[in-house]
Amino acid sequence: MVLGAPHALSAPSPRHRYTDRMIRDRVARLVSALPQAPEYATQGATLFVDLERRQVQRGFTPMRVVRALLAGRGANMFYLHRLLDESLHPLHPDVPLIFGSGVLTGIVPSAARGNATSWSPESGVILDSNAGDYFPSFIRMNGIDHLVLYGCAAAWTLLHVHEGQVAFLDAAPYVGLDNIELRERIPQDFGGAWTRDLAMVNITRAGENLVLTSAIMAGPKACYARGGPGAKMGSLKLKAIVVQGQTRDFETAQPYKGYNRTIAQKLLDTSVVKHALKTTGTPFLYKPSRLLGAMGTKNNQETTWTDRLDADHITPYRPGMAGCFRCPVNCRPLNELNQDASDRYGRGDGPEYVTLGKFGPNIGVDRIESVIRLNNICNDLGLDTASTGSAIAWAMELFQRRVITRKETGGLELSWGAADVAERLLFMLSRRQGFGNVLADSTRAVEKGHYPREALNYRMAVKGLMQSDPHDARILKAFALGMAVATRGMDHLRNRVTLEINSRINDDPAFKARLYGGPVSAAPNSYEDKERAVRVCENVYGVGDAVGMCRFTTKLFNSPSLPGLEEFSNQIANVTGLELSAGQLDAIGLNITGVERLINARLGVGRADDTLPDRWFNEAIEVGAYKGEKIDRAEFDGMLTRFYEISNLDPNGVPVPEWRSELEAMLGP
Amino acid sequence: MILVRLPSTLRVGASDTLTVNEPVTTVAALIDVLDRRIPGFREQLDDSVFNFAVNDEMLLYHARDRRLADGDTVEIIPTISGG
User: Fold this and answer.
1) What is the CATH number assigned to the segment(s) A477-667?
2) Which residue in chain B is spatially nearest to A623 when comparing CA positions?
3) Burial class of residue A608, CB neighbours in 10 A (0-12, 13-18, 19+)
4) Pick from A468, A492, A502: CB nearest B79
């Protein structure tokens, strides 16, 4: 892999001016070959924004690409494939940052999502992160499906999008502002109101400081989190993109609102929505994970934790729920710790399950109030709670093992459960101050010389990306395979076979076989046929990202009853006029991951990177009904080989030659 | 006696716990008893969101065949995934 590339983390020098930019040649070639008018009803333009020269070019994603990859995450990969120069480094201004909304984003209930795509400065592999809230929908209201950003602005810049036009504004008044204050300032300066006619993506000081765990914020909590997108946006000196405009109906190919009602009803009738998402949100998962003995605790040295963090204990601090644009679910829990207006972190959005796990058991914190407060701070500082929590947990284990001492931490005692220290570290990290500078380099702390090589033995990461969720996957082998093969690194949102934890489904083999297109073992700790379930989920979720559907409300992630390929097929036809069967959509899902694997191969990724942290192979779980469980290397390798075979991949994990040729022909030169 | 703990969305009346004094030997038999006591209970449980935990042990498969003994606590737990 390229993770050790000597200049992989180098930020562009602010004094360095690029005069002969390859990116411009690539963009020029690409734009010259793009249609200049929509290819289907509701299609928005792709804007190529040169931040250095303050120029904008337009085109539309060609139909051959739409039929192969759709929009959102799918077409983002087309643009990245065409524009990436892998001889550079992720934070080079010639490496583009690409925003893309889905085919159905802003039009269909619960389809409020979009992706941000680039080359990750944190992991060294593809950066592809998904968020909702209002930006992905409001950018479409302006007739824009994709924004391709490149070039380092001469000074901090804010892009203002209104009526489909882009203005380059001076961002100097906003530099140094974190999320809360920036979101207070923007409506005052631009007019409009959040959720009504104003949306924004922005970075915080963490992004300005190129912190590798920094997010691009899309709302008070919603963010493009994974892979360091905040640092990537910061490397372009782009502080924010503000989008204004009234919401509107789209001119679709056929009437679609009737089927929207069908989808909305399907969402609201699904029990997981009624019983969990709509009432409490994702923290519900904490209890099943800890009871199973699969709750990552103290950097996954242990696997269960206190019941004091069960979702019920958040209820007294939850004044209500919020949601994304036109989503009937409203799964985002709000929080209020106190009514002291002077306490900036006394209220906020969240926490979600990931944050609960990463800032609870994973760093040994057992007070729900502490977790909520740390959550609110992360939202303000613009941090990916998964990677940030993991980086702190990794440091705490190194401190426990005396791999690092107070000498390296600047006198800080990194004890498990020290929420006050964790709070201090968050601010230090966002400013790259003291030991915060070490944490800010996330998984790359060894490569950067902060930790000795021994530290890698305790790093919970795959492909250079810290684990996304707190679930310890030594028991559930489908979960483990999913995190090993996920194209962006160790992340559960790309392919998780969540229904493996549902006994009602495991105990109905015929139903389970129908879900996954063939038999899959009922035993959660079996390796048998798990590759089939991961493949199906990866395809469905890839399509979900390409149409803009929320993962939580996509079939197979939380329920077998939620909208899936059939519903996407019907509504794509209504909205766009494109006839794509469920089977064709399934192939599109495979194509998306195929292109991602082609890009990753250019970045040096191969079979050896589709693996898991050593801890899961070497150390067994010590509690619960699955005590003694770990990952068997030979069994895992066999499962991975079978996954490659059914995924049309060669033994190194890249598309087989015939399919590769087809994909490359579709992508173009 | 079996103690049954219910999630808030399945609570019967004001209580989140039920006591079953009839002799039951499996989770399936427990569901039978509860369905007689609470009409429609079985139908509500025929739903992939609900898992069973017996004495704090999550049952991921063969849940309804799980043997029960006097004094056991059975908890019905909604399971979801999240981000």
Assistant:
1) 1.10.599.10
2) B57
3) exposed
4) A502
Answer yes or no: do B82 and A624 touch at CB < 8 A: no
Cβ-based neighbours of A534, under 8 Å, separated by 6 or more: A478, A481, A482, A485, A495, A497, A643
The torsion angles phi and psi of A177, rounded to 5 degrees, stand at -90, 140
CA–CA gap between residue A158 and residue A167 (Å, rounded):
8
Q: Is A423 exposed, middle or buried (0-12, 13-18, 19+ CB in 10 A)?
A: middle
Stretch(es) of chain A classified as CATH 3.60.9.10:
22-244
CATH of domain A22-244: 3.60.9.10
Which range is least confidently modeled, A174-178, A230-234, B44-48? B44-48
CA-based nearest distance A37→chain B, Å: 37
Chain A: residue whose CA lies nearest to B66:
A503
pLDDT at B13: 67
Are B49 and A272 an interchain contact pair (Cβ–Cβ within 8 Å)? yes
* For chain B, domain boundaries: 2-78
pTM: 0.96
CATH of the domain spanning B2-78, picked from 3.40.50.2300, 3.10.20.30, 1.10.10.10, 3.30.40.10 = 3.10.20.30
pLDDT confidence of residue A21: 62
- Three-state secondary structure call for residue A230: helix
- Percent of residues, chain A, with pLDDT higher than 90: 93
The whole-angstrom distance between A585's CA and the closest CA on chain B is 24
What integer pLDDT is reported at residue A3 of this predicted model?
A: 38
Taking CB atoms and an 8 Å limit, are A272 and B46 in contact across chains?
Answer: no
Q: Which residue intervals of chain A bear CATH 1.10.569.10?
A: 295-462
The pLDDT tens digits of the residues spanning A91-122 come to: 999 999 999 999 999 999 999 999 999 999 99
A502-518 per-position pLDDT tens digit: 999 999 999 999 999 99
Side chain identity at A430, as an amino acid letter? S
What is the rounded distance in angstroms from the CA atom of residue B48 to the CA atom of residue A274? 13
Q: Are B80 and A282 inside 8 Å of each other by CB? A: yes
CB contact under 8 A, B61 and A507: yes
- Chain B nearest-CA distance from A477, in A, is 13
Q: Of B8, B47, B63, which has the smallest distance from its Cβ to A507's Cβ? A: B63
Which chain B positions have a beta carbon within 8 Å of A110's beta carbon? none
Nearest-by-Cβ selection for A354 from B78, B79, B82:
B82
Beta bridge partners of A99: A116, A147
Residues A173-182: what's their mean pLDDT? 98
User: CA of B23, closest CA in chain A: separation in Å?
Assistant: 24
Average pLDDT over residues A114-133: 98
**How high is the pLDDT of residue A394?**
98
Interface touch B81/A498, C-beta < 8 Å: yes
Reading across the β-sheet that carries B2-5, which strands appear in turn? Answer: B17-20, B2-5, B73-78, B50-54, B57-59
**Residues carrying CATH 1.10.599.10, chain A:** 477-667
* The pLDDT value given to residue A7: 36
Q: Which residues of A touch B56 (CB under 8 A)?
A: 291
- Out of B9, B59, B78, the one facing A503 most closely (by C-beta) is B59
Q: Tell me how many residue pairs between chain A and chain B have CB atoms under 8 A apart.
A: 116
Where do the H-state alpha helices sit in A343-418? Answer: 353-358, 368-381, 385-400, 406-409
**Per CATH, is A295-462 categorized as 3.40.50.300?**
no
